[in-house]
Amino acid sequence: MTGNTPAPALAAALAAGTVVLDGGLSNQLESAGHDLGDELWSARLLAERPEAITEAHLAYYLAGASVAITASYQATFEGFARRGVDRPAAGRLLALSVRLAREAARRARDAGVERPLWVAASAGPYGAMLADGSEYRGRYGLGVAELERFHRPRLEALAAAAPDVLALETVPDTDEATALLRAVRGLGVPAWLSYTIDGPRTRAGQSLERAFALAADADEIIAVGVNCCAPGDAGPAVGLAAHVTGKPVVVYPNSGESWQPAARSWTGPATFTPAQVTSWRDGGARLIGGCCRVGPRSIASIARTLRTEPV
């Protein structure tokens, strides 16, 4: 696919085969020398170094990814307000996150990439805005209606920027999933729903079967799965998500290293292997990539392993 020919709808691509996601945006930015030790994480660079975000997306497209996930995971009206960014300016930064990924796709095509390229607008959980690790625990003390009111405005802002899909990602519990499923209704943009898990349960301890079932009848959801989890936990979750929902499965775990909050560092070996990727595909995964500590080299390996072809 060349020139300005639009990519087919992502849902159609998933029906036809497997699509490669990108890896961790934060580690690509950090490897380029950017300090993300901040409550806004990579979202801070939307205002300060937008070109760095475009370059990070481009690195993944050139490595073999067909979907770039935007730098809006931790971008919220509330989080920006704490930095003195007013609501109109925050809305513009949310929209900018989509435009930067589109620009990276344009540059990738100029560099000779012919396969379809898509943009997924990231919407992280409420806990990501708190920046205290609670996105890995959930149960914030808020009800579904309160969480829906939090998520809807930024989802509207992201949808207005016309991404190909909304990435409702790193969701730690079923209350937040329910809120997100309500918040995406009527936006006119498809979405995927991806939980962060610990073994066979959500981070908040709920049954994954119940968690996946919430999305089974949601027309807006084109894929269901897991991210930001141990690679070893991903395999069983892929099969369960496919069985419970009948939808394509999205999976993008961490490298397998462990995050140490006190030291703010990663420890232990990486356990993410191409053999796992093949088993995920065979189990029903149609969107496969990596999350924290998974860089362009690993994405290139995934693309080679899956032998993806242009749609």
How would you describe what is shown here?
There is one protein chain. With 311 residues, this protein is an alpha/beta fold. The chain has helices at residues 10-16, 25-31, 44-48, 50-63, 77-81, 87-110, 126-130, 144-160, 174-183, 208-213, 231-245, 274-282, 296-306, and strands at residues 19-20, 67-69, 118-123, 165-171, 191-195, 197-198, 201-202, 221-227, 249-252, 258-260, 265-267, 285-288. Strand 8, helix 11 (231-245) and strand 9 (249-252) form a beta-alpha-beta unit. The termini are close together. The mean pLDDT is 92.
Please write out the topology.
Elements: H1 10-16, E1 19-20, H2 25-31, H3 44-48, H4 50-63, E2 67-69, H5 77-81, H6 87-110, E3 118-123, H7 126-130, H8 144-160, E4 165-171, H9 174-183, E5 191-195, E6 197-198, E7 201-202, H10 208-213, E8 221-227, H11 231-245, E9 249-252, E10 258-260, E11 265-267, H12 274-282, E12 285-288, H13 296-306
Parallel strand pairs: 1-12, 2-3, 3-4, 4-5, 5-8, 8-9, 9-12
Antiparallel strand pairs: 6-7, 10-11
